[in-house]
UniProtKB/TrEMBL annotation:
UniProt KW Iron keyword: yes
Keywords: 4Fe-4S, Iron, Iron-sulfur, Metal-binding, S-adenosyl-L-methionine
Designated name of the protein: AmmeMemoRadiSam system radical SAM enzyme
Cofactor (UniProt): [4Fe-4S] cluster
Amino acid sequence: MTIPSTSRSPAAGADRPDAPAPLGGDPAHWWHTTEDGRVECELCPRHCRLREGQRGFCFVRVRHDDRLVLDTYGRSSGFCLDPVEKKPLAHFHPGTSVLSFGTAGCNLACKFCQNWEISPSAILTPC
Ligand code: SF4
């Protein structure tokens, strides 16, 4: 599968892990500012280039005050006990339970996604 990406300009900035967290989010790493003033995320091959207030394709990294912020840090989109047989583990403690959890956000767009209700859109719904 080919993941389309936007054009990429040379690295012109640096990530700023010491930046304070606005919006209650967590400062994101792996981004830089481009020559045209956008913030480009370097975390995945999509290389989203964002203007103020825009979210990346994954919907969990957002530009705020000229920084990239992860506003799902510490938020779970699902938390439950599952039978271990649902997991891709062969003959691992059959008949027992396993704790499952995940966070909002996905950088894919599979048409057959079984988690479409809790993937990118979950960030819009308060936990
Ligand atoms: S999809 Fe998300 S992680 Fe990937 S480049 Fe865009 S903002 Fe970054």
